[in-house]
Structure formats: C-alpha cells, structure tokens
Amino acid sequence: MKWMHVTYRIAASAEIVAARAEALAREQSVECPAAAVTDPRVREAVMGRVLGIEADGPSHFRARIALALETVGDDAGQLLNMWFGNVSLQPDVCLVDVAWPDGLPALPGPRFGVAGVRERLGVARGAMACTALKPVGSSVAALAALAGMAARAGFHLIKDDHGLADPVSAPFAARVPAIQAAVDAANRETGGRCVYAPNLSGGPRAVQRQLAVCRDAGVGAVMLCPLVLGVSQVAELVREEIAVPVLAHPALGGNLRIDPAVLFGTLFRLIGADMVIFPNHGGRFSYDAATCRRIAAALAAPLGGHRPALPVPAGGMTTGRVGEMCASYGEDVLLLVGGALLAADSPAQAMGDFVRAVRGQEAAHG
Q1: Can you tell me the distance from the alpha carbon of 76 to that of 270, in angstroms, rounded to the nearest whole number?
Q2: What is the pLDDT of residue 218?
Q3: pLDDT digits over 29-84, tens only?
Q4: For the chain, which residues make up each domain, given as ranges?
Q5: Among 77, 100, 69, which Cα is nearest to 7's?
Q6: Which pLDDT does position 338 carry in this prediction?
Q7: Which CATH class is domain 3-99?
Q8: Residue 365 above 90 pLDDT?
C-alpha cells in the first residue's frame, strides 16, 4: 500500500473537527460513508485515513490525511481531483501541504530543469532576465519589432503575454515565425542566445497545430497555462510532444484554496514545468514575501528524482527591485518584467538598463 499525506486546514470547533476530518477522508477517497465500504481490501488500501489533527489558530485545525496513490495512476488531473476535488466545494477547507512517504505518482517532471534551462539560454550562473510581448491587440509586425528590441537589449527569454492566444490581430501561425525570425536576427547581430517562448492555447488539436508551427519556426521554449489547458494535457504534452523547456503561467491559480507552494511549486513541477511564473511580492498581486519564498523553495526541494525548476517571479517588477529580488531568491531565478519597460520614455533604454542590472548582480556577488 502506498499513500500520499495531504494536509487540510479546516474551519471548525474543537467539538466537531474530528468528525469533519473523518468525513473529509471519506469524501476524498471512497466518497461514501465508512459503513458502505464492505470490501476489506478497499477499507485497508483505498479508504482515506486521518493521521493527525492539530490546532492552527482560533477555530481552525490542520488535519493530515493519508490518501491512496493507487487512485491517481499517471493522471495529473486525477491527482488534483484526489487532493481537492469534492472538498473544494466546501468553503471551510483549504489544502495546505502534501508529503510523499511512499513515492510519487507517475508524472513526468521537468525535462530540462534549472541546469537544462541555463544551458539553453547560455547562462552558466547568475540571475536571468525575461520579458513579455504586449499589449494584446498588437500586430504581428509590432510584436516582432518588440521582440527584436528585447533580444538586442540582452534578454535571455522573451515570452508571449499569456493573453496572446490566436487573436485576429496576431494569429499564432503568423506571429510565431515572425517573432522567432526577429529574435534570430538579433542573436546574429549581438552573438546572444535569446530564446522565444510562444503561448500554447486551446484544445488538443489546436495545440498540436501550434506545436507544428513552433517546430517549423525553430522556437527554443514554449509557454502554457496549466490551469487553462488542463494539467493532464500538459503532462501528456511534456511526456510525448514537447522537446523544449516549458514555462508555466499561473493564470486561474488565485483563490483556489490550495497553498501556492503546493499548486505552483509542486503540482506545476510534477507535470513538467521547467520554469514557473508566480506573482512576486510587492507588485500588483497580493502574495507576501514569505509565500513567494515558499514557492521558490518548493520548486527546488527534493521531489523524487525530478529536476528542480526555475522560479520566475513577476508582476510589478522594476529595474530598481532587481537587487532585492536577487537577494530574496538567489542566483537561480528568472526575473520577469514587462509593462514597466514599455511605459518608459525609451523602452529600448529601459530594457538595456534592466538587463544590465540583472547581469550586475552576478558581478557583484561574483
């Protein structure tokens, strides 16, 4: 028998929390009362078990529950379902931690990891710089020109904005080759190794068409939104289709009542993300510094034999915060900046200043 240990935070009184935890264990395993489980094997090997309950603030408790790994198999969507499927509909419950005493589900994990991304970007050590192509609604020509400008400024990675799917203004099949050509031209001029990551979107057939465009254009990475595409589809793509580093975007990840370190740090890494974007503290999103550090720590923590993934803090990033962010995350970080540069009087100058600030951190800490 193999189990995963899932910890939930429950809003309940001391008088009822034990019953709530037992009900939660049934709900997330056999989904019926214990009295209805008459098969001895199911009771022993599948039915959830409450391992412990401890107080966690006024009228709140943490319940650690063992759930059977056999119910997951190699399906990332089923993993998410077994973690939090039905109880996500109970607003007094949050998922706060997962432990793996008996091994991991059969999911791909990062194909490249931190070391592979560094090799692809040509950066042996130190923080790296990333920017996003925006605003949505821009033409192919405008986006390609912006990508060329960013590549010449020295950015290591350029990604589509996550809102860039297959719009009339910049269809995927036209946009990706044009932007890749602009980045290639800039790399030839500068000797750089800037990589472009288009945003994959849509259903399975649409994604297959987009991957064919990416292969033909010679792109060096892809971006996707796991909670938009579906985590099962992402894991399958990493296993069978995608041969370049994967950048995962956190869209739809807010307010799910799953701890961000579990969602972005563990789940996104298990399904194959080599780089994971998350909302940086001090920006336009609400995560605090401790939460951001926990996400980054989860991306680097031992996780079976899986490679570590690269944290990509984003949202409200500015050149003035580069030193602070490098101090917070260390040298294994990809700093993502977008709108702040485009709003500058001279975007090209602002891009160069940001890249120089990032590269200056390596020189400063040598």
Answers
A1: 8
A2: 99
A3: 999 999 999 999 999 999 999 999 999 999 999 999 999 999 999 999 999 999 99
A4: 3-99, 113-365
A5: 100
A6: 87
A7: alpha beta
A8: no
CA 84 centroid distance within chain: 18
For 113-365, the fitting CATH number among 1.10.940.10, 3.20.20.110, 1.10.1270.20, 3.40.50.12780 is 3.20.20.110
Residue 230, classified by CB atoms within 10 Å of its CB into exposed (0-12), middle (13-18) or buried (19+), is middle
Question: How far apart are the C-alpha atoms of 263 and 146, rounded to whole Å?
Answer: 32
286 vs 361, residue with greater confidence: 361
Q: Which amino acid is at 329?
A: Y
C-alpha–C-alpha distance, residues 355 and 192, integer Å: 13
Q: How confident is the model at residue 286 (pLDDT cuts 50, 70, 90)?
A: confident
Calculate mean pLDDT across residues 182-209.
98
